[in-house]
Amino acid sequence: MFKxxxxxxxxxxxxxxxxxxxxxxxxxxxxxxxILAEHADADLCIVSGDIAHDGEPLAYREARGQLKRLPMPxxxxxxxxxxxxxxxxxxxEACAADGFIHRVIETVVGRMVLxxxxxxxxxxxxxxxxxxxxxxxxxxxxxxxxxYLFAHxxxxxxxxxxxxxIRLRDAEAFMAALLPFRDRLRHLFFGHLHRAISGTWRDLPxxxxxxxxxxxxxxxxxxxxxxxxxxxxxxxxxxxxADSIVVHHADFMASR
Length: 256
Ligand SMILES: [Fe+2]
What we know:
The protein is of the alpha/beta class. The chain is 23% helix and 23% strand. The strands form three sheets. It has a six-stranded mixed β-sheet with strand order 4-5-6-7-9-8, with helices on one face.
């Protein structure tokens, strides 16, 4: 069984700086320690964006230092809160030659396709024609391997009004790019929502995970803001087999 760790929405500030009354750096520290204690045998770790809250270089340095403690390969993605240049300066291996922070990771269970959905200056997600062309090319270049998709922004409305307003704007174009390869697409993983969530989008299974610091409330009525909540943070542990994908949610703040 292939074990994939899915972290998201670290929202790091420079070390010691408080955000929403929490210490994102200390929470990530605890998350990493939990992984080392419980899931050090994982094959891969993907962090699906919002590494920093305000794109500060010191926040990326903190992320780099913490994530370096993990023994498995770790890949960071870009979210709407991130600064492309500052993230790229600390994680140069994440940057493609075309300037986007997208790439493919080959694994024994298939291809992990990590998308760049950031639209600079906007909280909303975008897949412009250049990124869609890149995605189509990646999907076309290996017609045997199963594909797992990763994006910061969900393409599907989930009932949280503010988050739905800032989801992936180009969802229809995204689906049009996916459709010719539909039989090889196994799962879509995303962040952005700061919630443990799962479902299907046009029959494509998806899951999202909690942030490692603050969460967003399960609030279906507030229209213009995403209410911060202090529900338990967490990360995802996906067990990928030949005919199944199971996504667990680990509570790293819970004591045993
Ligand atoms: Fe976030």
